[in-house]
Amino acid sequence: MSAGAVSRRGRARVVGLGWALGPPALLGVLFLGLPIAALAWRAGRTGALAEHATSAFVLDALRLSAITSTFTLLIAVIVGTPLAYLLARYRFPGKWLIDVLIDLPIVLPPTVAGVALLVTLGRRGIVGEQLDAAGIDIAFTTTAVVLAQTFVAAPFYIRTAKAGFESVDPSHERLAWTLGASPLRAFREVTLPLAWPSLLAGGILCWARALSELGATLIFAGSFQGRTQTMPLAIVGAFESGKSVEVPIALSVILVCAAAAMLVLLRLVTGGVSRDAHV
Amino acid sequence: MFSVDFTLRLGDFTLAPTFSGGDELIVLCGPSGSGKSLTLQSVAGIMRPDEGRIEVAGRALLDRAAGIDVPVQARRVGYVPQGQTMFPHMTAAQNVAFAVRPEDRDRRRAIVADLLEKTGLTGLEDRRPRQLSGGQQQRVALARALAADPRILLLDEPFSALDTALHGELRELIVSVQGARGIPVLIVTHDLGDAFSLGDRLIVFEAGRVLQQGSREDIFFRPATRRVAELVGARNILPMTVRGIGDGVVALDWAGREIAAAIYATHDAPPVATGQHVEASIRPTQIMIRRQGDTYEGRRNVFLATIASEIMGAEFYRLFVRIDGSPAAHDLEIELPAYTYFRLGLDRHKEIELSIRPEAVHIMHG
Predict the structure, then answer these.
(1) Is the ipTM of this complex over 0.90?
(2) Chain B interface residues (partner A, CB cutoff 8 A)
(3) Domain A52-165+192-278 has what CATH class?
(4) In chain B, what percentage of residues exceed pLDDT 90?
(5) Coil, helix or strand for A86?
(6) pLDDT of B61-94, one tens digit each?
(7) Which CATH class is domain B2-221?
(8) Whether domain B287-357 has CATH 2.40.50.100
(9) Among A65-79, A150-164, B190-204, whose mean pLDDT is lowest?
(10) Positive or negative CA dihedral for B214, B218, B220, B222?
(11) How far lies B164's CA from each of A8, A96, A276, B155, B193, in Å?
């Protein structure tokens, strides 16, 4: 028996493959880490990063991304929370269909989502035609950006929130009723706090997905600076218009920072959940 | 005061209990799966019976015929479910405060402090469930149920997670709470010891029905049927034949021996007739023993016997005895305190004399 297989701190024995796993694992870490490092290195070498980062082109994209992703999150929470609770608590005919519908945008290429939205809400779409007659235009507006992001990102919130509600024992709710709490109060003071970490995690996932949305937005909303050109679209736009490579680098660094911040937040939130669950 | 009379169908299972009680401790006992917990949940309003009526303190909580079905939150029941009972995200004080009624809101702090003190939880106000023992959590749940000022208290297996010492404490707490509040307290338990020591009134359940209800003496010493006797732990259930009736006793033939059973004036069982085959139960703790040779005359139901085998418990010894001349491996089971066992010298002398009071011989009907 090799002594190396036994941990010194008296924990349970781990897989005995040891160093054979090292090289491929290291390769994987390098492959994932190197591009991010390269981006940081390039941004550091480019002296005028701050100048690019505060150009109107970048600031417009930043502002639009912040506004649209926040609205997307709001819509997802307002519409998605009741839907998630419904799916977690009730059984009804056709429920599987709703489950599939919610999962579909997650697996669909975002460009397909864009096309689908266009044939629905575009000027000649099945709903868009009616709206157009009433003088309402949605396609290629900031509203279209929010709708494209919502279509693609809301399912992430709904899925996570549903799992969160499912993890709350319904007997807690029933017990709250017997103690004189109305169903609304039981939901607010018992269910919601218990499902809270999942709702928060779902919200972060949804927001991150909205922030990175490109394909659906490009097709359904186009790429107009200040109106529909969010940060991912601005990166594509900067390359296409032959602007200096420093602009997309500046945008990318900002997005990487935002994404990393959200992931850390997610870790803190869900890490807190699993710690609670183990006690 | 309360009464329960409803039918609840769940798949193949039909729960149709009929019982009632006053402002006292009422124990619901019976095998698991007999519908005791579902009955509590139906009173609480979590389960909705298909038909019938539930009344508490003169108010109908459910009356399907009259279209009455009071919503759960308006029933004013203090329900303590089995198992994990505290809201996991709230402290002990917050758990109790949750149930304080809106009209008592300005007295909330005083009510919570008072209840925590009465349940012996002072100093633990800010603890969360995982920082509390099972017994402490159980007491928080009880305090919380009382905070809603209930008209009836429903406790589902309150002792199941507790060790012996905490068990006794909680039992005393429940008795004192019932006394102080003067409301009916329904307790589900499978523990016969708890059932006997707690229950002013016992309701015996089996397969969704009430087999018998009555005082603890009725249920334990005068079970109506063989099944109830078995459920409350009777161990000497013996086939007998009626020889005659008179002189305040029923004379019975027990495998050729004569044994007398007392006739209870209060017992509303149907009368027996001479020649009828019946079953009688004799509780293992109701048999007196002395060593052979110490016999004196003038007693009824005296038998010479031999100890065939014995099981030693921590406090009680269980003896399996054979009546002298009997072909059976053993005829009766007797339980006696360890002290008595040694006092009588039964560790050395296995020849004994039994004497059974006629009051301890109970004839069952069906």
Answers:
(1) no
(2) 44-46, 71-79, 81, 84-85, 87-89, 98-99, 101, 130, 144-145, 147-148
(3) mainly alpha
(4) 58
(5) helix
(6) 999 999 999 999 999 999 999 987 899 999 999 9
(7) alpha beta
(8) yes
(9) B190-204
(10) negative
(11) 41, 49, 30, 18, 12
